[in-house]
Amino acid sequence: MKELDLINKITKIFNENNDKSIIMGPGDDCAVLDLGDKDNFYVFTVDEIVENTHFILDFLKPEEIAIKLVRMNVSDVLSMGRANPFYALVSGGIDFKKIDDKWILRFLRTLKKEFDCWGIKNIGGNLSRSSNIFFSIKLIGKVEKNYVVYRKGAKEGDFLCVYGFCGSSMAAVDIMKNKKRNGITKIEEKLVYYFTRPKLYKDFIWENCKYFSAMIDNSDGIYRSALILSKENNLKVVIDFKNMEKLVKPEVLKWCEINKKNPFDYSLFGGEDYNPIFSVSEKNLKFLNDKNIKIIGRFKRGKGVEVLNYDGKIKNFEHF
Fold first, then answer.
1. Tens digits of per-residue pLDDT, 90-134?
2. Which of 37, 85, 86, 250 is 20 to 30 A from 179 via CA?
3. Which of these three, 96, 123, 148, is where a domain ends?
4. How far apart are CA 183 and CA 58, in angstroms?
5. Does residue 302 share a domain with residue 201?
6. What is the distance between the alpha carbons of residues 119 and 84, in angstroms, rounded to a whole number?
7. Among candidates 69, 40, 82, which has minimal Cα distance to 205?
8. Does 136 lie in the same domain as 211?
9. How far apart are CA 65 and CA 137, in angstroms?
């Protein structure tokens, strides 16, 4: 079963629509609960980083894994609008034949520093033995009721926009799969840096989310994110492949040129960049005056995702 199909089945089975405190259950970046706070909803999310699925142990440093783990979870919270995480539960599976005490201490100290940067307090967790090392974070946060944004909310005619750049993480994954850390170039080291330290855009989201009709974080790539938004909003998303050119960092362009790869495929299909993907109406677009906003498509009547000016093979991002 494909990952997206499995998620759809989970969402259908666990749709608890008889509990009025559940504002949003399975199917968005966070679950959203009304727990009686006058001004805020509470948001809950969980994500994990798994050896040989999300990272290669011999390639990445423990500090890099810790930073990536925190930011991929914080990204889910920020994608709900004017939101903040504040509590975390951390769990992990460890094999001390692969890592030692020093590795764990380096990981934990960096985890603490990263939590401090985001105002997060660790309040508990769980440890187990595992042949594949993994770490998981459950985040609890708040989102202002007047500034919450869901995946659902886009209207026919809305623009699909991206803030920041895409494709760097997918390029880094190719590098990690095919090279040893001590054998990579300066450009490749930069791409690995982007992978392990994804930039999050809290200030932009907090300032502008009131103009968004829908939002999702770019954990799964633009194409798959567009599929999700299409399904949630019962609309067709039309993307122009030519718009992928403006989403690629110079380092990705250079690396792809050297390695004879298409950088714009990376920007369309590559996941784990964690920048916001959002919809905005034509009326509200004029309020978004920021050069880092890129319009890549539009919502139209219909279903699915259409990519104009693209003759390659659609490669839907999958975590497994």
1. 999 999 999 999 999 999 999 999 999 999 999 999 999 999 999
2. 250
3. 148
4. 13
5. yes
6. 8
7. 82
8. no
9. 12
